[in-house]
Design goal:
Blueprint lengths: L11 H20 L4 E2 H10 L22 H4 L1 H18 L3 E5 L5 H12 L7 E4 L3 H14 L7 E4 L6 E8 L8 E6 L2 E10 L2 E8 L2 H14 L8 E4 L3 H11 E13 L1 H4 L10 E4 L2 E3 L10 E3 L2 E2 H10 L3 E7 H7 L2 H6 L6 H15 L8 E8 L18
Parallel strand pairs: 2-3, 2-5, 3-4, 5-10, 10-14
Antiparallel strand pairs: 1-7, 6-7, 6-9, 7-8, 10-16, 11-12, 11-13, 15-16
Helix pairs in contact: 4-5, 5-6, 8-10
Length: 392
């Protein structure tokens, strides 16, 4: 297992925390005959109660954390999402907004503030959050920023039933645990985690039928087999996860924003080392077996798989676009026009934020937005500038 020496060292508390989680992962490895799938490792690294990255108390978002998300960069991002929510809620004659994995609570606060400004508040603003630590932070953020709207907010532990309205999820799909696979000749191997020489290390076994079927399906869809040695990821849990979402959404739209690609681009032969991406103190690397429990782990999203799972669950792809095109469609330029009377320094700062959100070299093209509709046949303004659904 290699390490990235450019990463900052762990603090003593971080080191102790990581060692506790590694010990628990080692117990899981021992209990499963010396090997666990990467999917299981990623699940424990991120969500193990009390120890996983999203379950423990470290600062994750913002300048003091490990990465910055679009809502943290600028409130304009959330205001654009709110504009799309307004369109759907007005078409439905009211409804709820459900946010999945609300992070620090900044996006929820900014969406609620803009919906109030547009006189289109949802009946409820629901937050499905698995992390007790993050839930507490969200409550503090909302109490500080929109205290008068806090009574509309409810936290959930599971999917709601019969939801009418909008589901929003920013950087959620990338954190769903994935399987890793490697091609050895004509064989599909599962890449998992073992314990060797006093540390976590990679190990391969022959893929089980579920993983092999998933890999072969991608090969058939792309019209060619993967080359020998090819390493990548596939989310075998996506179909049941999207089915759960479809069962929750009786009528309305779900919007997912994340970094990723259509399947044909995702699994290009030259992208032969996969897409895993770890975040630690604003440094990116591809070593998930280090800093366990104190760094984020994600994988790029296969948006074709998302679209296919939605179709199987009875939903319709309502649009697919780059983040830049979606924000433009939702009126980011008009929001910018409203700040003309503000001081020059604030206008410059906002202009820089918009550049980060929309430029191709920043987040504008790397991040995509997909809309999934349930019993909702109207066009969505966010996909009005350019809809790339045909690429899926």
């Amino acid at each position: 297992m290699s390490t990235d020496t450019s990463l900052p060292p762990l603090t003593p508390d971080e080191q102790a925390h990581s060692e506790r989680l590694v010990h628990r992962i080692r117990d899981a490895i021992d209990a499963h005959h010396g090997w666990i799938s990467f999917e299981r490792f990623m699940e424990m690294a991120l969500y193990e109660p009390g120890l996983g990255y999203y379950s423990a108390g470290s600062t994750k978002l913002g300048g003091a954390g490990d990465f910055v998300t679009a809502p943290e960069i600028s409130s304009l991002f959330s205001r654009c999402l709110a504009a799309q929510c307004v369109e759907v809620l007005q078409r439905l004659g009211g409804g709820d907004v459900l946010e999945l994995g609300a992070g620090s609570g900044v996006m929820a606060a900014d969406i609620l503030a803009e919906l109030a400004n547009q006189q289109c508040l949802p009946e409820r603003y629901l937050i499905l959050e698995v992390s007790a630590d993050l839930r507490e932070r969200q409550q503090k953020t909302l109490s500080a920023r929109v205290p008068d709207l806090l009574p509309r907010v409810q936290w959930l532990d599971q999917w709601p039933v019969g939801l009418r309205g909008v589901i929003v999820a920013n950087e959620v799909l990338d954190a769903l645990p994935v399987q890793r696979f490697r091609i050895r000749g004509t064989q599909v191997n599962a890449v998992g985690v073992t314990w060797q020489l006093g540390q976590l290390d990679w190990s391969e076994v022959h893929a089980d039928p579920t993983l092999e079927l998933a890999v072969r399906a991608i090969e058939r869809a792309n019209g060619e087999p993967f080359p020998d040695g090819y390493l990548s990821e596939v989310n075998v849990r996506l179909v049941p996860w999207i089915a759960g979402l479809a069962n929750a959404l009786a009528e309305g739209v779900a919007l997912f924003i994340d970094y990723g690609l259509p399947q044909r681009e995702y699994y290009r032969s030259e992208r032969r080392e996969g897409t895993l991406l770890c975040h630690f103190r604003h440094r990116f690397h591809d070593h998930p077996l280090i800093n366990v429990g104190v760094q984020d782990i994600g994988a790029w999203v296969d948006f074709t798989a998302v679209a296919s799972a939605a179709h199987d669950a009875g939903m319709r792809v309502a649009g697919f676009a780059t983040q830049a095109h979606f924000l433009i469609g939702c009126g980011i330029e008009s929001f910018m026009a409203t700040i003309a009377e503000q001081p020059v320094t604030e206008r410059v700062q906002l202009a820089r934020q918009v550049m980060v959100l929309t430029l191709p070299g920043e987040m504008g093209e790397r991040f995509k937005v997909i809309g999934l509709a349930a019993k909702y046949d109207h066009p969505l303004r966010g996909f009005g500038v350019r809809d790339l659904s045909g690429s899926l």
